[in-house]
């Protein structure tokens, strides 16, 4: 019996409230040996106070040594084994912008990128082109017609957009075309099985047509494709945990993932402060709240240590407003580590904090990677976080006689 099946049997309803604050890519590394990580360098009086009140630990999003993408990282936080429940980034993005995926759909998360005259990538995100410039370009790609397949294109945010192919015989097992580095051309789409060969043909035609339409653009003159996927079949938060769950996020991908596990996306916040406004307004209507902050991850991916420090300090600044709501359980964590030193996601465990009336205390004096290593939660896998939250919220019964 897996842990979710066990939780289904033991779940117990009550009126307790759980808040999960997620700073995307929270974990980091020191720039020099013996120096602080981004979290340790940041001025975080509110998180440090919580660390002295609650219990800390080091969480592995997937397993030791495995670097997670954002989708698997969040699935683990939500208590779903990310190895068992495979959800592609395309499905997440499409759902997040409100696209209803059908049985014959394959969704792809796309990035605008910049190619030089030789066809090599000079910027994987087209200079993080602002949404007001990228959205019209995504809409322009709706002009592309491919015989025998319906093509849908939806703007997302900044350099991101979604493409959905609809038609019979399309499979979602296709490799990404983003090489994850500059100085080389985008990869060609490659099918991972026989059922996905038609998808590769369609994707190739779309890419060729898109490059012609974008040829005169100074930055967004090409695209890469990631996360080919169909709609997954997955149990909801209500079914597994007995929770009426709300998701508060700015970026569509995280809204999409939350919706796929049965959370209701609430509010239309565009800043972290506005997200806490939504949390306050929705407080009486839900049992569980997932609140997502993106920019810790973005600055880590940019390799900007100081900017990530500032984003962590911004994250810390809203903590008092959350505490004022008096949640039964407050979780603070990230979906993975994104050290500025590496400019990418990494396999390092994520510092995690749990605060509840009935939690045992440890000797952690601040919230950071080094302190978390000695925390009472120890080293644990992300799928264990939700059962811990439910137990401290009085929502899990006893197992056995």
Q: What is the number of helical segments per DSSP (H or I, 4+ residues)? A: 15
Bulk shape: globular
> What's the arrangement of strands in the largest beta sheet?
9-8-10-1-11-12-2-13
User: What is the name of the CATH superfamily of the largest domain?
Assistant: Alkaline Phosphatase, subunit A
**CATH structural fold name of the largest domain:** Alkaline Phosphatase, subunit A
- Indicate the structural class: alpha/beta
The CATH architecture category of the largest domain equals 3-Layer(aba) Sandwich
| Portion in strands | 15-25%
In round numbers, the mean pLDDT is 95
Total individual domains: 2
Task: Kindly describe this structure.
The structure is a single chain. Strand 8, helix 9 and strand 9 form a beta-alpha-beta unit. The chain has 15 helices and 13 strands. The chain is α/β, with parallel strands linked by helices and 401 residues long. Helix 5 crosses helix 9 and helix 11 packs antiparallel against helix 12. The strands form 2 sheets. It has an 8-stranded mixed β-sheet with strand order 9-8-10-1-11-12-2-13, with helices on both faces. It starts with a helix and ends in a 9-residue tail after the last helix. Helices cover 32% and strands 19% of the residues. It folds into 2 domains: 237 residues, 3-Layer(aba) Sandwich (Alkaline Phosphatase, subunit A), CATH 3.40.720; 138 residues, 2-Layer Sandwich (Alpha-Beta Plaits), CATH 3.30.70. The radius of gyration is 21 Å and the shape is globular. The longest helix has 18 residues. The model has no long low-confidence stretch (mean pLDDT 95).
């Amino acid at each position: 019996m897996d842990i979710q099946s066990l939780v289904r049997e033991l779940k117990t309803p009550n009126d307790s409230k759980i808040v999960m604050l997620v700073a995307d890519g929270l974990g980091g590394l020191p720039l020099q040996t013996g120096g602080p990580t981004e979290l340790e360098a940041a001025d975080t009086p509110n998180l440090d106070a919580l660390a002295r009140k609650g219990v800390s630990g080091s969480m592995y999003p997937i397993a030791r040594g495995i670097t997670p993408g954002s989708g698997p990282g969040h699935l683990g936080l939500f208590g779903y084994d990310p190895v068992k429940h495979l959800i592609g980034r395309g499905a997440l993005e499409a759902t997040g912008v409100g696209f209803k995926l059908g049985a014959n759909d394959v969704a792809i998360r796309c990035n605008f990128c910049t190619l030089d005259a030789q066809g090599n990538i000079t910027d994987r995100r087209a200079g993080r082109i602002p949404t007001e410039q990228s959205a019209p370009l995504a809409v322009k790609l709706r002009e592309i017609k491919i015989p025998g397949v319906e093509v849908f294109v939806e703007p997302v945010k900044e350099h991101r957009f979604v493409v959905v192919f609809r038609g019979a015989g399309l499979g979602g097992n296709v490799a990404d075309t983003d090489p994850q580095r500059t100085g080389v051309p985008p990869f060609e789409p490659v099918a991972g099985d026989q059922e996905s060969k038609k998808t590769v043909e369609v994707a190739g035609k779309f890419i060729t047509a898109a490059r012609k339409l974008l040829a005169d653009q100074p930055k967004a003159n090409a695209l890469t494709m990631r996360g080919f996927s169909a709609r997954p079949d997955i149990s909801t938060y209500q079914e597994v945990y007995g929770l009426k769950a709300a998701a508060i996020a700015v970026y569509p991908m995280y809204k999409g993932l939350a919706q796929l596990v049965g959370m209701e996306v609430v509010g239309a916040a565009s800043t972290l402060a506005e997200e806490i406004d939504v949390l306050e307004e929705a407080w009486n209507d839900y049992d569980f709240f997932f609140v997502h902050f993106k920019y810790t991850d973005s600055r880590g991916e940019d390799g900007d240590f100081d900017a990530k420090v500032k984003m962590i300090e911004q994250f810390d600044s809203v903590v008092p407003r959350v505490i004022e709501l008096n949640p039964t359980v407050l979780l603070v964590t990230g979906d993975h580590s994104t050290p500025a030193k590496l400019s990418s996601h990494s396999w390092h465990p994520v510092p995690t904090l749990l605060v509840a009336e009935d939690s045992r205390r440890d000797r952690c004096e601040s919230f950071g990677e080094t302190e978390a290593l000695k925390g009472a939660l120890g080293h644990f896998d992300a799928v264990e976080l939700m059962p811990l939250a439910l137990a401290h919220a009085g929502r899990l019964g006893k197992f056995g006689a």
